[in-house]
């Protein structure tokens, strides 16, 4: 009798990695008891950090989508000198260590930097610095996804739209943007999650001032020194948002199916 | 105004292909045949108004769309265009696609519906584009082009990749719908030629190598490709 051979070897090799990925999340979820969690949730520092994170990430996302969508469109359409350079620039923050970005931002916006003379020293260590740091580290996630989506828009689709009376601009609004929308929403979600989790560049460029520049990740860092249960509660909240964002992006293809034309 | 329905001279270089696509005829319905990569789709795109690299003259149905001093953009040419693969908008359902060029207004929905009925697709209105068969997709794309009340219709291999039954049905639909229109159809099948056109262009290596009334060109092809296509010895 023959039985189907089981792929034991590959599972054996894969399991350490799988455990390494799953264990921290599970441990974090189980570390706080309900009482601890409830008392931490009432902590004034937590409300402050959540509010600041919500405000700054909303503003970052607005700038990333507002400026990033036309930039991604121009890069995807190509045909101008410097496309390759801009594409490299767009990929760079993903691999640059956040600490490096923080130092670079201080140099750019500090008193001696090229923009320092214009802005004085008002930008560094301000809520605006938090937003700038988030934009720099998070925008690649939106841009790369938007560029790929716009590249997928068939030239013939735009030409058909124009032959039906749409101007070049209106063809972008009525055809290119809706075609790319699922990918744009996915990219924006990941960019928002990255902005929410931003730590290193913010710490160096914006500091860690409660109520002013202390976002959720920085509040975890600060709480670790005084109140570990508060740090855990903050971490759980952040993890919840991250898991939500990833689940949302992974479910997007299914959501797309309820759109009128997509039923396939 | 010339008596010609088509008066086209398009020259230029696109990538590695040197193009000289010129033809003139008083016939309204033109069929284009030629090997892959010969420039047939480029010709259609240039007529729609998307190949700014090609210079020359485009007069269709007595209207001049392009000459030495003029280049009319696609949205003002209003040429119905069905590209290879149909070019349907995936974010809209069938009726949304067909009504795309109808504008707003009270009559828009009715015009879209009428166009769908004309191509035998009345039952498809609320369907998703992704659910359609190949023949249905072609019908919807044709209805979309017709609903916008086009000055001319350009079809790029509308009968390719269809099963034999769908092909025969769609050929009849095209035959009926193109009868009184100014149109160009690109095809790879001799059986479509007589059904869909009166004037025939053979395009090879970026050039119109032979043109004339359909029967004349079919009886006396001047190139090896034409001979093979029509099954005649040159």
Topology:
The complex is a heterodimer of chains A (264) and B (234).
Chain A: H1 8-31, H2 34-41, H3 44-77, H4 83-95, H5 98-109, H6 116-119, H7 127-151, H8 155-163, H9 168-197, H10 200-206, H11 216-223, H12 228-256
Chain B: E1 6-14, E2 17-25, E3 29-33, H1 40-48, E4 55-60, E5 63-67, E6 70-71, H2 74-77, E7 79-82, H3 94-98, H4 108-118, H5 134-147, E8 152-156, H6 164-178, E9 183-186, H7 190-196, E10 199-204, E11 207-213, H8 214-219, H9 224-230
Parallel strand pairs in B: 3-9, 3-10, 7-8, 8-9
Antiparallel strand pairs in B: 1-2, 1-4, 4-5, 5-6, 10-11
Helix pairs in contact in B: 4-5, 5-6
Low-confidence stretches of chain A: none
Radius of gyration of chain A, taken over Cα atoms and rounded to an integer in Å: 22 Å
Oligomer: heterodimer
Helix-strand topology string of chain A: HHHHHHHHHHHH
| Main beta-sheet strand count, sense and barrel state of chain B | 6 strands, mixed
Count of the domains of chain A: 1
Can you give the helix content of chain B as a percent range?
Answer: 25-40%
- For the record, give the distance between the C-alpha atoms at the N and C termini of chain A, rounded to a whole number: 42 Å
What is the assigned CATH homologous superfamily of chain A? MetI-like
**Mean residue pLDDT of chain B:** 92
Give the overall form of chain A. Answer: globular
**Spatial extent as radius of gyration of chain B:** 18 Å
Which characteristics define this entry?
heterodimer, A: 264 residues, mainly alpha, MetI-like fold, 12 helices, globular, B: 234 residues, alpha/beta, six-stranded mixed sheet, five-stranded antiparallel sheet, 9 helices, 26% strand
In words, what does this structure look like?
The complex is a heterodimer of chains A (264) and B (234). In chain A, 77% of the residues lie in helices and 0% in strands. With 264 residues, chain A is mainly α. In chain A, helix 3 packs antiparallel against helix 9. Chain A starts with 7 loop residues before the first helix and ends in an 8-residue tail after the last helix. The mean pLDDT of chain A is 89. Chain B has 234 residues and is of the alpha/beta class. Helix content of chain B is 33%, strand content 26%. Chain B is built from nine helices and eleven strands. In chain B, the strands form two sheets. Chain B has a six-stranded mixed β-sheet with strand order 7-8-9-3-10-11, sandwiched between helices. A five-stranded antiparallel β-sheet of chain B has the order 2-1-4-5-6, covered by helices on one side. In chain B, helix 4 (108-118) crosses helix 5 and helix 5 (134-147) runs parallel beside helix 6 (164-178). Chain B is globular, with a radius of gyration of 18 Å. The interface between A and B is medium-sized, with 25 and 37 residues.
């Amino acid at each position: 009798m023959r039985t189907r051979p089981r792929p034991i070897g590959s599972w054996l090799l894969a399991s350490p990695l799988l455990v390494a990925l799953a264990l921290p999340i599970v441990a974090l979820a189980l570390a706080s008891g309900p009482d601890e969690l409830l008392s931490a949730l009432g902590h004034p520092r937590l409300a402050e950090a959540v509010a600041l994170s919500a405000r700054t990430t909303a503003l970052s996302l607005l700038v990333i989508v507002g400026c990033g969508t036309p930039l991604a469109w121009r890069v995807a359409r190509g045909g101008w000198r410097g496309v390759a350079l801009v594409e490299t620039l767009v990929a760079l923050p993903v691999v640059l260590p956040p600490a490096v970005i923080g130092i670079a931002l201080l140099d750019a916006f500090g008193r001696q930097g090229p923009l320092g003379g214009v802005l004085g020293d008002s930008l560094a260590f301000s809520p605006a610095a938090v937003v700038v740091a988030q934009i720099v580290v998070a925008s690649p996630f939106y841009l790369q996804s938007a560029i790929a989506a716009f590249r997928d828009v068939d030239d013939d689709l735009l030409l058909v739209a124009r032959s039906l009376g749409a101007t070049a601009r209106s063809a972008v609004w009525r055809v290119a943007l809706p075609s790319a929308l699922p990918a744009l929403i996915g990219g924006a979600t990941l960019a928002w999650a990255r902005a929410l989790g931003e730590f290193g560049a913010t710490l160096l460029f914006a500091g860690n001032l409660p109520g002013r520049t202390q976002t959720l990740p920085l509040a975890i860092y600060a709480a670790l020194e005084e109140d570990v249960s508060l740090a855990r509660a903050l971490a759980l909240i952040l993890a919840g948002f991250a898991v939500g964002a990833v689940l949302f992006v992974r479910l997007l293809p299914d959501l797309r199916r309820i759109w009128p034309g997509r039923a396939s | 105004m010339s008596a010609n329905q088509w008066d086209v001279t398009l020259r230029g270089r696109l990538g590695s292909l040197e193009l000289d696509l010129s033809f003139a005829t008083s016939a309204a319905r033109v069929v284009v045949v030629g090997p892959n990569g010969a420039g047939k789709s480029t010709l259609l795109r240039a007529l729609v108004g998307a190949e700014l690299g090609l210079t020359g003259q485009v007069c269709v149905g007595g209207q001049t769309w392009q000459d030495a001093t003029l280049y009319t953009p696609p949205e003002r040419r209003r040429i119905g265009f069905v590209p290879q693969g149909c070019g349907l908008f995936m974010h809209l359902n069938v009726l949304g696609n067909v009504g795309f060029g109808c504008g707003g207004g009270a009559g828009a929905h009715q015009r879209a519906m009428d166009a769908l009925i004309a191509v035998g697709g009345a039952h498809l209105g609320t369907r998703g584009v992704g659910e359609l068969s190949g023949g249905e997709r072609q019908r919807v794309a044709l209805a979309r082009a017709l609903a916008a009340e086009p000055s001319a219709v350009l079809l790029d291999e509308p009968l390719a990749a269809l099963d034999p039954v769908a092909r025969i049905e769609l050929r009849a639909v095209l035959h009926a719908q193109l009868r009184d229109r100014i149109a160009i159809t690109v095809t790879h099948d001799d059986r479509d030629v007589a059904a869909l056109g009166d004037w025939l262009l053979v395009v090879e290596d970026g050039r119109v190598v032979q043109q004339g009334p359909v029967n004349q060109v079919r009886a006396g092809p001047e190139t090896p490709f034409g001979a093979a296509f029509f099954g005649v010895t040159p």
